Amino acid sequence: MDLRPLNYFLVLADTLHFGRASEACHISPSTLSRSIQQLEESVGVRLFERDNRQVSLTRQGHDFQRWARDTLEQWEQLRQSLMSEARTLTGEISIYCSVTASYSFLYDLLSGFRRRYPGIELKLHTGDPARSVSRVLNGNEDMAITSRPHRLPEGLAFKSLTRSPLVFIAPHEAQKWVPADPSTPHADQWRRVPMVLSESGLSRQVSDTWFRALGITPHIYAQVAGHEAIVSMVGLGFGVGVVPRIVLDASPLSERVRVLPVKPELPHYDVGLTVLKRRLKSPLIDALWAEVEERG
User: I need a labelling partner for 131 at 20 to 30 A (CA). Which of 22, 44, 87, 156 fits?
Assistant: First the structure.
């Protein structure tokens, strides 16, 4: 069964860019364009609006996107179920995580799994951890290593891998704006401190809540995608940051910053593997999920 046109469609619907989509599909832009045109002729409606500047999904395109995603998922589940009965599993699992998570968890998580299921190909995508949950919910990834949200979205399953405290970090060299006594919460000493914080995600939510409890709005020097970049900017002396301790411990720049003994302490960061519950019906996904021993 040639389901490649549906895959091409979904990649283009995600990127809304023929160049990036054709590169991701390993085909030429002209081949991708012909495939989409043939698909539109088959269904009898336009799925994309396109001009020289932009590409967008039509209303029918959004409907077709949901159908295509469900169809490929059901086909994959059936194919894997048949292979499971024959005691073999082949296919692909995509995993999204931060750079730190890729070398903190993936070896332990996947080394035994690769030996047991050599026919399964693992595709890794790294990026801003704040995007992890949405990428799984939207069907862009099969699984993600991420922090557990305050409220786990309905339909998501989560298994904890480790817990790490969130910490305030400052440049190793003394700076006049670093609070002299961070163990004593005082609004005046934090009001003008330049802060380097995540653009979004759990650590940003926790930071905003901490400052709100202090009765002030943080003085934002920079908003950064990814905790690793926060360590770099703090090490360069641009401000105080908030990162998970696990990121700091793994950073090659950890000696350039110091942890501030801030009170009240920030809550722990629960890092784990997440997946759509309905995707666990897939023998392929369930096999990897079963590998994870949840930490208490």
Answer: 22
